[in-house]
Amino acid sequence: MTCKIVIINPGIFRPGDAITGKIICIFEREERIRGIKCQFRGREKVHWNERRGKHTTHYHGQTDFVVANTDFMDEGTMRPGKYEYNFSYVLPPSDIPSSYQHQFGSITYFLHAYVDRPFAFDYKDDVALHVVSPIINHPTHQMRAVSLEVNKEVGTCCWPKEPSTMELRLERDNYVLGDVIYFKAIIRNTSDSEINSIAVQLSTTVQLTAYSPSTRHKTERILLAVAEGSGVAPGSTKIHKFSLKIPETAVITNFTRCTLFKQWCSLRVQALYPLFHSNMVAEVTIKLGDTIVRTEQIEHAVNSPSNSFVPVAEAPPVVYPPVPPSAPLANDRLAFIDDNNGTAEGPPPSYDDVVKGSY
């Protein structure tokens, strides 16, 4: 007996796509079953070990953000033959994560079909699916300017000075791969120490979260671009203008609906003081996407009739011939299945034809 999943439209799936296929079950003898089922799952999981002394702790977590079940057959007896069951799962038009693989976790989509057998191992098959969900940013007119000011006291407890300040000004908070970030860093150095230089870093951070046996985070920072500015003399103010290009090859992942994965992009500017002083740091978070959506695309997604995973299953097909349990299994043409409507094509062969192998 076999149970196999066949995807009719294999490849990369995107939001709004339909995943269509069929479950093929072949029974070589009459068999009692509890059902024929198919499960569609979107699953995130993390796992890693941390060692402290002689003790090792295994942190892990797993969540299903997509759960869709289809029952093709209820409990009953299956006669020998080939059975095909069509299915279609429609992805929502937006707000789904992408497939993702990491050293300490993954985000996967998969189909799991099985024949539920009482008091025996199930017949089953699994197929992994690859989903790419772009991160779509808002239109330009919905973006906003960003301004952030930080200060730092550089002096002694006996002779305090007015704090030095650094202000960042970005023209917007929303970017896509390949964009150039134009911004200003206005630095006012009121201390007696010279600021040696200005260091700029654009990076993305991926955070993994495990909830068992306790909440634990693991982060990975990826540097995308860097820039440098000249120093600022004591008691002076300088305006630095920067242009930082976001690499088109940067890898960003859509983690929408995920609870174990998170990603953000940050612009970090440091005013570097001499070694015996701590640096003055300003950091802003920006939104980084694959593309900018137009207004009509947003309206279409909002007004879409479905924003959930919709399983669609067809009625059980007609299966030929009614072979007795003692008869050998005929070839693949036992089932006359029309993929369009699930009805039989032409008359079934006779029992004698099947036994003699003339069909």
UniProtKB/TrEMBL annotation:
Keywords: Sensory transduction. PANTHER family: ARRESTIN DOMAIN CONTAINING PROTEIN, ARRESTIN DOMAIN-CONTAINING PROTEIN 1. One of its GO terms (cellular component) is cytoplasm. The keyword Repressor does not apply. Residues 339-359 are annotated as: Disordered. Belongs to the arrestin family. The keyword Metal-binding does not apply. Residues 10-135 form the Arrestin-like N-terminal domain. Residues 162-289 form the Arrestin C-terminal-like domain. GO terms for biological process: protein transport. This is Arrestin domain-containing protein 3-like.
